[in-house]
Amino acid sequence: MSIATPSSPWRTRAAIPGLVAAEAISVIGGRMSFLAIPWLVLVTTGSPVKVGVVAGAETLAYVLSGVLAAPLQDRIGSRATSLLSDLGSAVVMGAIALTGQLGFGVLIVLSSLAGVLRAQADRSKNNLLKPLMDAAGTDFTRVSAAREGVLRTSGLIGASVGGVAIAAFGAIGAIWVDAASFLLGAALVAFFVPDPARRDGEPRKSAPAEPYLTALRGGFVYFTSEPLLRAVTGMLFFTNLFNQASAVVFVPMWVLTVLDSPVALGSVAAAYAIGMIVGSVVFATLAPYLPRYSALVFGYFVGGAPRFLVFALSDNLTVIVVVTFISGMVMCSVNPTIGAVIYQRVPGPMLARAGGIIMAVAMAGIPLGGVLAGLVVERLGFVNGVLLSSLLYFAVTLTPVIRHRVWRELNDAGARGPTTDPAAALPRGYGLAATALGPRVTLRYTDGEWTLHARSGLRRLAPRRVLRAKTAAHALAQLDAPAVHEAVRELARHEHDGAGREAARLRADLARMEFAMSQINVGLRPSHLP
């Protein structure tokens, strides 16, 4: 099979969609195995504890390998790592399907290996996105938001398809489908995604590889030297912690105590997911025109603590679903903003190592969230536990405001505007977004007065100023817009006619005044005068 060279225009345009499609398929397959492997363990062993052990082994391997294998990924290359990891994951999934019923120890080993390979596949695809965005000249935040929406949609599809596949083919059949998804993802990367280590088909000269421990230490040194990266990583840790607390404790507890309906549990979860998807579509369009710092702070303030607080204040499912949906919509600005800044702040040689550290710290909040939420509810009760968690979450979301000098560097990373390349078509929403949120200067004529306004989004750039008619006419004359010129001429004719009528009225008033004065003078003349 012949593959187009990296310099071909169609491949440049298709590289990012091809990579995101590969990630989406991987997410769908991962969701299926997330359901199928625990089901296999439960069916073969009947032990919920062993289900937790297998899931924990895969998660632990996923997190640790993201950090420890990053220097090796730098040596192999992101594209090669992605292909090898996907192919290896397909083999491991096949091995689980064939031998998973033979013994619990074998299943733990294979699940751990699956976690290692899945981590490398995910991280390498994530790292491939940066050079592709550089080559396409597109906006980092916009691509991150669109990618977030696609992956969340894939997660919903994967969970649904996984349940259907297990019902139709059994746990073993669903695992085979997951293996096939890895092969399809590898094929998409091989066909659509060029190797960033090559330019115009020629291999780049690479620097000598660092020793493993030196490279690993270098990643930690770089991460600790970047205050903004440390700050956003800490926020991701707490975001995951509180999200997990909500998903596994607060929402189920509210549903159980108020409605006792599994349908309500699914409604709340779906509302948040759909809100995130809808919000990602909107944010992907508006992202190039929004200040990143403001978008992130707004997302945390509106989508963070209020989503918790409503569970303590309301027993109405409709209110809960609406608030959860809105929270999902506004929270969609958080991950794409942070992801875009990581792409722009972290140099390519450090992306795998720094990204692995960020992922490990962020995911550490997931297991803690459920445990801490359970302890809080057990000690304080549901309502008090939710109120305390809401207060703590709000305190955490104040961090970007309190440490605004660090967090405002989100804007300094430099959002790249829409590309001017005619080969890369822009959506119509860019025009609307530029008008509504970009800089705009308004020249207005009202009641015989010309005024000038200048704004950028909701921020006023200059106060309202009154212009002389001659200055306004001169400015409008510079526009290559015949309709505007005709409107100005019509306005001038209207003003001229109005001025003529006003002059005639003044002359008539003057004549009346002169006549009245003459009558007064006649009445005041002495009678003895002739």
Describe it.
- Its main location: membrane.
- It comes from Catellatospora coxensis.
- It is found in: Cell membrane.
- By secondary structure, the protein is mainly alpha-helical.
- The chain has helices at 9-45, 48-68, 70-76, 78-99, 104-136, 140-192, 212-224, 227-259, 262-286, 292-303, 305-313, 317-331, 334-345, 348-380, 382-397, 399-402, 404-407, 409-412, 429-437, 469-477, 482-524; strands at 198-199, 202-203, 439-446, 449-456, 459-467.
- 78% of the residues lie in helices and 5% in strands.
- It has a 3-stranded antiparallel β-sheet with strand order 3-4-5. The chain has a two-stranded antiparallel ribbon with strand order 1-2.
- β3 and β4 (449-456) form a beta hairpin.
- The longest helix has 53 residues, at 140-192.
- The chain is elongated and about 130 Å long.
- The model is unreliable at 1-7, 200-205 and 414-435 (pLDDT under 50).
Radius of gyration: 32 Å
- What class, by secondary structure content? mainly alpha
Number of helix segments? 21
- The stretches of 5 or more residues where confidence is low (pLDDT under 50) are 1-7, 200-205, 414-435
Strand order of the largest sheet: 3-4-5
Number of strands: 5
Fraction of residues in H or I helices: over 70%
Outline the biggest β-sheet.
Answer: 3 strands, antiparallel
Order of helices and strands: HHHHHHEEHHHHHHHHHHHHHEEEHH
Q: What's the pLDDT, averaged over the residues?
A: 77
Instruction: Give the overall form.
Output: elongated
Distance between the ends:
124 Å
Strand-residue proportion: 5-15%
